[in-house]
TrEMBL record:
Residues passing through the membrane, by range: none
Any matching Pfam family: PTS_IIB
Source species: Oenococcus oeni AWRIB429
Positions of the PTS EIIB type-2 domain: 1-94
InterPro entries, alphabetized: PTS_EIIB-like_sf, PTS_EIIB_2, PTS_EIIB_2/3
Protein's UniProt name: PTS EIIB type-2 domain-containing protein
Keywords: Transferase
Signal peptide from the UniProt entry: none
Gene Ontology biological-process entries: phosphoenolpyruvate-dependent sugar phosphotransferase system
Length: 94
């Protein structure tokens, strides 16, 4: 089982939107039973980022973890969503 953490600044608003869209995509593409999803705020995840197979963020992340995080802002804007899904698929090796 792969683990996917979705974060935003507070762990409430935009991460909830992103989580819903990712869950729908996983269901549609048949990957839902392969991924456990978590949701939090970025400040709670910074020191445990390596505990997850992939992290999607809708907020700014510290420079030292940027290479480990998928930019989830396209899930909010609707522009570049397919690229986000591709990155998730690649990082989780689905």
């Amino acid at each position: 089982m792969k683990t996917l953490m979705i974060v935003c600044g507070t762990g409430i608003a935009t991460s909830t939107i992103a989580t819903g869209k990712i869950k729908s995509w996983l269901d549609k593409d048949g990957f839902a039973n392969q991924v456990t999803m978590y949701q939090s705020k970025i400040s709670d995840v910074i020191n445990s980022i390596d505990d997850y197979d992939a992290v999607v963020s809708t907020t700014i992340v510290p420079e030292n973890i940027k290479n480990k995080v998928i930019n989830g802002v396209p899930l909010l804007t609707g522009i570049g969503v397919d690229q986000v899904y591709k990155e998730i698929k690649d990082k989780l090796a689905l």
